[in-house]
């Protein structure tokens, strides 16, 4: 009988311990927001605290005081020990959002957030541009990625209703274009494009924070094998590379092969710096990305929508961010040094 009672006590203790682990403790979140443009505390900044415990769920809101300090009234639930992040704080300054990701090992009672003042003029033009063409089945997916380098001093965030990026959208796209932007934190965010007063020219107002940012456009065009695609540019002096999948080739005046992507086998072309460049696109193909299978053996995956028109939102939502942006960074890293483009080493 005693052994049975002892076993019951042990079982109850184990249950309590398990319950305590299954019900994570809460923690208070407080800290300081500073404006790196002025070098002073940022007062009156609206903050939103979100939890990652079950998806991304808003928990509380707060506003910074005169000294830039803040403290949320509601505690942030802790997540399981296996999850590296517990939540995030979004700070809004002059209409621009800044997100601070909170790690499970971070000290949440002294969170430091940096924001910047907004400047609407003097927006730097893109330094590099990569265009990816994927023709197949009478249609062609076009993805354009523009790299911006914001080296303002003192640091500011550039944002304007006139657009931080302007671009030509071919008539065949019928005004439909998917836009995403990635800031220095490498967090992809959806954006949108609006027509300007110039025919066929659209604008994107994606905030360019200090550091490197990229804006990616994706659209669909009708295409026949061997037809000509006209690549247009609003900007002069932008280093441009055009990439096509294995099985596709380009031809045009002063269009030359630059390199072959080692993993995807895509061919990378150099094109002249002109307002309009005509490219004859021959062949069909989709980009393929190499990855390793769970067993450790090399495996190939390919993204091939069927039909492409129905799967277009999925392509631009997944394929662009996984293939396009990573591909863009690799291409940019291989630009010749004689262009004098400043590049940052990523940690």
Number of strands: 28
Distance between the termini: 63 Å
The helix-and-strand class reads mainly beta
Radius of gyration from CA coordinates: 25 Å
Q: Strands across the major sheet, in which order?
A: 17-16-20-13-12-22-25-24
User: Which range best describes the helical content: under 10%, 10-25%, 25-40%, 40-55%, 55-70% or over 70%?
Assistant: 10-25%
Can you describe what's shown?
This protein is mainly beta and 347 residues long. It folds into two domains: 26-115, Carboxypeptidase-like, regulatory domain (Immunoglobulin-like); 128-337, Immunoglobulin-like, CATH 2.60.40. Helices cover 14% and strands 43% of the residues. The chain has two helices and 28 strands. It has helices spanning 2-22, 308-333, and strands at 26-27, 30-35, 40-41, 46-51, 57-63, 69-71, 76-77, 85-93, 96-103, 111-115, 118-119, 128-136, 139-150, 157-158, 165-168, 178-182, 188-191, 194-195, 201-204, 211-222, 228-232, 239-244, 248-251, 256-260, 267-270, 276-283, 288-292, 298-302. The strands form eight sheets. It has an eight-stranded mixed β-sheet with strand order 17-16-20-13-12-22-25-24, with helices on one face. The longest helix is centred in the last third of the chain and has 26 residues, at 308-333. It starts with a helix and ends in a 14-residue tail after the last helix. Residues 1-24, 290-325 and 333-347 have low confidence and may be disordered.
């Amino acid at each position: 009988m005693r052994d049975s009672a002892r076993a019951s006590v042990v079982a109850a203790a184990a249950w309590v311990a398990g319950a305590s682990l299954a019900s994570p403790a809460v923690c208070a979140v407080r800290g300081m927001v500073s404006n790196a443009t002025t070098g002073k505390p940022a007062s009156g900044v609206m903050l939103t605290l979100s939890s990652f415990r079950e998806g991304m769920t808003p928990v509380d809101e707060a506003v910074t005081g005169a000294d830039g300090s803040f403290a949320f009234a509601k505690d942030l639930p802790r997540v399981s020990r296996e999850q590296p992040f517990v939540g995030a704080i979004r700070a809004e300054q002059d209409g621009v959002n800044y997100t601070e990701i909170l790690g499970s090992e971070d000290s949440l009672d002294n969170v430091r957030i940096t924001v910047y003042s907004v400047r609407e003029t003097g927006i730097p033009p893109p330094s590099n541009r990569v265009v990816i063409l994927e023709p197949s089945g009478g249609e062609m997916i076009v993805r354009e990625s523009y790299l911006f380098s914001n080296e303002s001093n003192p640091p500011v965030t550039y944002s304007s209703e006139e657009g931080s990026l302007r671009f030509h959208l071919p008539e065949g796209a019928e005004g439909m274009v998917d836009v995403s932007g990635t800031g220095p934190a490498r967090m992809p965010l959806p954006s949108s494009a609006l027509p300007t007063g110039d025919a066929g020219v659209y604008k994107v107002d994606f905030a360019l924070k200090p550091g490197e940012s990229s804006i990616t456009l994706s659209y669909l065009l009708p295409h026949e094998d061997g037809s000509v695609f006209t690549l247009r540019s609003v900007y002069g002096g932008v280093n441009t590379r055009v990439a096509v999948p294995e099985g596709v080739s380009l031809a045009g005046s002063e269009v030359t092969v630059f390199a072959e992507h080692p993993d995807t086998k895509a061919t990378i072309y150099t094109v002249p710096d002109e307002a309009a460049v005509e490219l004859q696109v021959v062949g069909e193909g989709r980009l393929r990305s190499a990855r390793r299978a769970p067993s450790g053996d090399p495996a190939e995956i390919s993204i091939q929508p069927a039909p492409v028109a129905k799967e277009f939102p999925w392509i631009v939502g997944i394929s662009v961010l996984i293939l396009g942006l990573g591909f863009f960074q690799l291409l940019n890293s291989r630009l010749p040094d004689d262009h004098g483009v400043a590049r940052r080493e990523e940690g």
